[in-house]
Write a structure and sequence with these properties.
Blueprint (H helix, E strand, L loop, with lengths): L11 H9 L3 E7 L5 H4 E7 L7 E10 L2 H8 L10 E2 L5 E7 L11 E4 L10 E5 L3 E3 L6 H20 L8 E4 L5 H12 L3 E6 L5 H11 L3 E4 H4 L3 H8 L5 E4 L5 H8 L5 E4 L12 H5 L4 E4 L2 H7 L4 H16 L7 E5 L3 H8 L7 E5 L3
Parallel strand pairs: 9-10, 9-12, 10-11, 12-13, 13-14, 15-16
Antiparallel strand pairs: 1-2, 1-4, 3-5, 3-7, 3-16, 5-6, 6-8
Helix pairs in contact: 4-5, 4-12
């Protein structure tokens, strides 16, 4: 799907007249916590006028992430004041700019620079410093998904273990959005990956897809209890770093495969079970356990050179084809209910991304 830049067809005066008439946005709003399929409603909301320090944005695409679902359910640490518009990330195009704004310009594609922008809406008006411009010609789907999954993968591969080309990284939930980004960023850096997924009817299809992204090995937890582990480590070194998005007993699987002194980073808890850590792995194997939350990193590094460098690098990989957006389905905003339902299904490897063209 193409997202044309309409402003290219008009003069600046015509653009201002064209978009100043947009005073209402369609938005996915919830006024109480609960089942997303029951509490999220498609409504129309009035847009405030653009003042001297704000911008008006036409949203192009916004994904539905697990954190979005958990926030609606009321079980996520971020709890926006209700009622609120859903959506933590997405990409939009600046269509009107306040007179004193210098951070962005008309036609820039931008992503949120704050955690509560509310991206599940056709248009929004916000302070200019609440968004960050993307490098020119960044693919729309890369822009839509860069702030959560891609940034999470980038930081976990950069911040905990000094990895060199040829080193091995182990992860579970490898078919998740973050897992797909880990595979590709690791490949771009010359790292090898062992990728664990749950057993499923379409395992061979998923394995082929993850290998096309650059996965070195794709296995199930069940297969690792047999001969697969020996087969994998006949060709690969033991991992120095493991990324845990599941918790529960899956953590023990990671521990058994780690190099002594390795680090396990937990960034999710899909099993909704505590991280299980055998005492011996701490004493005798010196395995280190840390937690990671991308939201905190964004808060601590907002508008920093390090954050800008990260986004620039990810977008460059996106433009070169080394980083692809996660396997996804574009869903019109009006069909949001089907998208929410799809996110909640088991064994899903397809991210639902809301589009705003219709």
């Amino acid at each position: 799907m193409k997202f044309p830049r309409l402003y290219q067809c008009f003069s600046s005066v015509e653009i201002k007249r064209l978009y100043s008439d947009i005073q209402v946005a369609r938005a996915l709003v919830y006024a109480e916590h609960g089942d997303p399929s029951k509490v999220v409603q498609l409504t129309e909301t009035d847009l405030p006028p653009v003042d001297s320090s704000s911008v008006k944005i036409k949203m192009l695409a916004s994904p539905i992430n697990p954190a979005d679902i958990n926030t609606i359910q009321g079980v996520y640490p971020i709890k926006p004041a209700l009622p609120t518009v859903g959506g933590f990330e997405g990409v939009g195009e600046v269509i009107e700019v306040g007179g004193q704004v210098t951070e962005v310009k008309l036609g820039d594609r931008v992503i949120p620079a704050t955690n509560n922008l509310g991206t599940w809406r056709s248009h929004l008006v916000c302070p200019a410093n609440h968004v960050s411009p993307l490098p020119q010609d960044t693919p729309v789907m890369i822009g839509a998904t860069v702030r959560v999954n891609a940034c999470t993968a980038y930081r976990m591969l950069a911040d905990f273990v000094e990895l060199q080309p040829g080193d091995c990284v182990l992860q579970n939930a490898a078919n998740s959005g973050a897992g797909q980004a880990v595979i590709q960023i690791a490949a771009a850096r010359g790292l090898q990956t062992i990728n664990i997924v749950r057993d499923r009817p379409d395992f061979d299809k998923l394995k082929s897809y993850l290998e096309s992204l650059g996965a070195t090995a794709v296995v199930t937890e069940e297969s690792l209890k047999g001969k697969d582990a020996a087969k994998v480590f006949k060709e690969l070194p033991r991992p120095k770093l493991a990324l845990n998005a599941v918790g529960g007993k899956s953590t023990i699987t990671l521990i058994k495969l780690m190099e002594p002194g390795g680090t396990i980073v937990t960034y999710g808890g899909m099993s909704r079970q505590p991280v299980l850590v055998p005492t011996g792995s701490l004493i005798f194997n010196d395995v280190k356990f840390v937690g990671y939350w991308m939201t905190r990193w964004h808060e601590q590094h907002a508008n920093s050179i390090e954050a800008s460098h990260m986004i620039t690098q990810l977008c460059q990989w996106g433009k070169s084809g080394q980083l692809r957006a996660p396997n996804h389905k574009l869903v019109p905003l009006s069909d949001f209910a089907s998208a929410l339902d799809a996110v909640l299904q088991p064994f899903t490897s397809q991210k639902q991304i809301l589009s705003f063209d219709t």
